[in-house]
Amino acid sequence: MQPSQATPTPPTINPKLIVPFVNSVRNVFATMVGVSTTMDRPRIKTDRAPAYDVSGIIGFSGDVIGTVVVSFQKCAAAKLVEAFAGMAVDPDSPDFADAVGELANMIAGGAKQHLGNAADISIPSVVIGQGHVITRPSDVPCVVIPCKTEVGDFAVEVSVKQLQTAGT
Amino acid sequence: MQPSQATPTPPTINPKLIVPFVNSVRNVFATMVGVSTTMDRPRIKTDRAPAYDVSGIIGFSGDVIGTVVVSFQKCAAAKLVEAFAGMAVDPDSPDFADAVGELANMIAGGAKQHLGNAADISIPSVVIGQGHVITRPSDVPCVVIPCKTEVGDFAVEVSVKQLQTAGT
What we know:
Chain A is α+β, with helices and mostly antiparallel strands. Chain A contains three helices and nine strands. Chain A starts with 14 loop residues before the first helix and ends in a 6-residue tail after the last strand.
C-alpha cells in the first residue's frame, strides 16, 4: 500500500465564508430552537470521517457554489427537533426529516444573506443512516464547525467557494 | 399505532420535468461511460425506502428548485466508475467520490439545459453508506427512474418543481 500523496499547499479557512455560518448557527438555535450552542474552533476536514446519524444537505449555486451539511447525533436531532417543533416528532415520520431539513435551510439561508446577493440555495435533502459518509468534490475544502448543545452534538460542514466576479 | 393519513390527491408525474432526466441519463451513460442503460417506467416514490449504497446529490435552485439523487448499488458504482475513468478506482479514495459526483453532475447538467435558462445546479455531494435513507421535503414529489445496466442497477430520484414565472 502506498500512502496517498500529501497536498503540497493545504487549504486555509476563509473567514468571509465561514463567519456567516457561525453566526447563523448561533442565531437559529438561540431564536428558533431555544437551545444555546457552543462552538469549537472551525477546522479543515481532511479525512473521510463519517457524518453523524442525521444530516441535512443544502446546495449553493450562483455567486457562491458548494454544499453545506448540518449533521446531528441521532439523540441530539430528536431533542432539537422536539424543541424546534414544540412537541416530540417520530423520527420515522416525514415531519422529522422536514424539520431537520428546515433547520439546515434556516442556517444556510441566514448565512446566504451575508455571502452575496446572487447566491441561491437548494431545498434540503436529509440523509438518515448510522455511519454514512458525505463527501464533496475534493477541490473544494471542507470546513467543520463542531457544535455542542446540552442535548448533544452536531456539526456544520461548509464546503463553499466564492466565484470571482467583477468588483470582488 | 394509527396508520398515517392517506394523501387526498396523490401527486402526478410532470413529463416536462422528468423526460429531460431520462434523456440525460441515457446520453451520459452511452457517451461518457460507454455502458447502455435500460430504464423502467418512472414512478412516484411514496415510501422511505433506502437509497442504494452510493448516492450523488445535486441541488437545483433558481427557476427550478429541488434535488436530484443518483444512487448506485456498490458493485455497479465500482464498475461504472471504472468504465467512466478508464481504470479501476479505489472506492475509498477521493477520486471515487469525485467520479460519482461527476456522473450526477453530468446527468443534472444535461437535464438542466432543457429545464429553463435560469436553473442553477450545486456542486455534488456524495453519500456512501449501506442502507442510508435520503429524504426530501414532503411537499415536493419524488419521481424514481429505475435504471439497469449489465453491471448493476442504479436509480435517479428527481424531486424538483418549477417555480411559476411570467409566460409559464
